[in-house]
Amino acid sequence: HLTEARFDGSVVDAAGDISAIATATERHQIRVSASSVALAVGIGGAVAGAGLSADVTNHSFVQAISLNTGLRAGGSITINAVSSTTVDDAAAGSSGTTMVGTAVAGGLASVAVAVSLLHATVENTVTATVQATQALESYVAAGGDVTVTANSTSKMDNLDGVGVAFASGQFAATGGGLNISLLVNNTVTALVDLGNRLRSVVSGGTLTVAADEIASMSSNVVNISTAAAPVGLAVGAAVMLSRHSSTVGATIKRAQITTTDLDLRATSSLNVSKTDVTGVSAGTIAAVVNVATVKAEALVTALLDDAAVQAAEDVTLISDYKVYGRATAL
C-alpha cells in the first residue's frame, strides 16, 4: 500500500511551521496448528501426516515529499516519513507457540510425517525527500530548524515453532521438518537534491537529514521425530534463518546549504535476540539436521555530494550499523 504526504509544484509561505508527515503502521498476528493421528489394529498399516505453511509478506510505501516547491517558514520545516511493521503471534485470547504440527501413527507398519514452514518478510520503502528539477525563486528557507527524516521500525518477535512426528509398530518410519525464515529488507531514504549547487536550503537552526532503521527478530524452533519399533527409521530437520539486508541512506547533493548546524545521519540497528534450534531424532536408525543462521547484510550510508555548505557551528556526518545476533543449534 502507499501512504504519502506531498508538496508538488507549489509555493508555501507560513509565518509559523510547515510540515509534511506520512505515517503507516501494520501488524500481522500468526497462530496455526495441525494434527493427524492414524491407528491400525492387528496387522494393518497406519500413515499419518500433518503439514503447516504460513507466508506473511509486508510491502509498504511511505513517502513524505517536497518536489519543485518553494517552502518558506518563519518557524520550522519538517518532511517526515514513518513506517512501523510488527509480525508476532500475540493474537487476542491466545497463548503458546506460533506453529504446532503433530503426526502420530501406530500399527504393524506405520509412517508419520510432520512438516511445518513459516516465512515472514518485511520489505518497506520509506522515503523523505526535498527535490527540485527546475528553477524556483526560493526552495527551502526557515527561521528555525529544517528536518528531513525517514524512520523505519520492523519487529518479528516470538515466532516459535514445534513439530512432533511419532510412529510405533513392528516397522516404523518417521520424518519431521520445521523451517522458519525471517527477512527484513527495507529501503529507508532521506534525501535533499536540488539539482544545482546554486539552489539553496537556508535554516536558522539545525538542518537534519536522517534515515534511521530499527529491526528486531526472535524465534525458537523445536523438532522431534521418534520411531518406536524393532526396526525404526527417524529423520528430523530443524532450520532457522534470520536475515537483515536493508538499504539505509541519508544524502545531500547538488545544493547550497546555509545553516547553524548540519546533521547528516544514517543508522541501522539490528537485534536478533533469539535464533534457537533444537532437533531430536530417536530410532534404531536416526538422523538429525539442525541449522540456525543469522545474516546481517545491510548497507548504511551518509553522503554529502556536490554540495556547498556554510555552517555557523557544527557539521556532522554519521553512518552507523549496530548488530546483535544470537544463533544456537542443539
Care to describe what's here?
By secondary structure, the protein is an all-beta fold. It is 0% helix and 76% strand. It contains no helices and 27 strands. It has strands spanning 2-8, 11-14, 18-29, 32-39, 45-58, 61-67, 70-73, 77-88, 99-106, 109-122, 125-131, 140-142, 146-156, 161-168, 171-184, 187-193, 200-203, 206-228, 231-244, 247-253, 256-259, 261-282, 285-296, 299-305, 308-311, 315-325, 328-329. Strands 3, 4, 8, 9, 13, 14, 18, 22, 26 and 27 form a 10-stranded parallel sheet that branches. A 6-stranded parallel sheet has the order 1-6-11-16-20-24, with no helix packed on it. It has a 6-stranded parallel sheet with strand order 2-7-12-17-21-25, with no helix packed on it.
In short:
This protein has 330 residues and is mainly beta.
Work out the number of β strands.
27
One letter per element, helices H and strands E, the order comes to: EEEEEEEEEEEEEEEEEEEEEEEEEEE
The residue-averaged pLDDT reads 81
Q: Strand fraction band?
A: over 45%
Low-confidence segments = 35-42
> What share of the residues lie within helices?
under 10%
- What integer value in Å does the Rg equal? 27 Å
Output the structural class: mainly beta
Main sheet attributes: strand count, strand direction, barrel closure: 10 strands, parallel
First-residue to last-residue Cα separation: 40 Å
Number of helices: 0
How would you describe the shape?
elongated
